[in-house]
Specification:
alpha+beta; Arc Repressor Mutant, subunit A; Dna Ligase, domain 1; three-stranded mixed beta sheet; binds zinc ion; binds manganese (II) ion
């Protein structure tokens, strides 16, 4: 994603980005808010939401929007796939290759212009399998 020129990296924005880059847990805005408050005590949840949206626009982070439930955020803006555990709700990064021809395949098959794709796998994670 192209970076939007002229968007400043403010102190608050940098703190949010640092928090997000320090974890692989794909946290919610609420979790990020609690962590950023440890660094900037007077920050508001509204500021967190606004800056998450700007960071997304800047191409610094990814938003994983799950439709009916709240979004989770990813400090890695480069496309990669996720495994979502339906038992513990963990969102885990998958170290597998991106299907780099799939956009073109869909485009050729349908005539739509495909800009990107997102892929999540759902099931029971390794940790949760041990509990059974
Ligand atoms: Zn699990
Ligand atoms: Mn991820």
């Amino acid at each position: 994603m192209a970076k939007k020129p002229g968007t400043r990296m403010t102190k608050q924005r940098q703190a949010i980005l640092d928090v997000l880059k320090s974890t692989t847990s794909h946290p919610t805005a609420d979790w990020i808010y609690e962590e950023v408050r440890k660094i900037i005590p007077n920050v508001s949840l509204g500021t967190i939401y606004r800056n998450l949206s700007i960071l997304k626009e800047m191409g610094e982070i990814m938003e994983l929007d799950f439709g009916s439930t709240y979004s989770r955020f990813d400090g890695n803006p480069v496309n990669h796939y996720h495994f979502c555990c339906t038992k513990c709700n963990q969102v885990i990064d998958l170290d597998i290759d991106i299907f780099d021809t799939i956009d073109q395949d869909v485009s050729q098959a349908t005539g739509h212009i495909v800009n990107r794709h997102r892929l999540e796998f759902y099931g029971i994670c390794k940790d949760c399998q041990k509990d059974d």
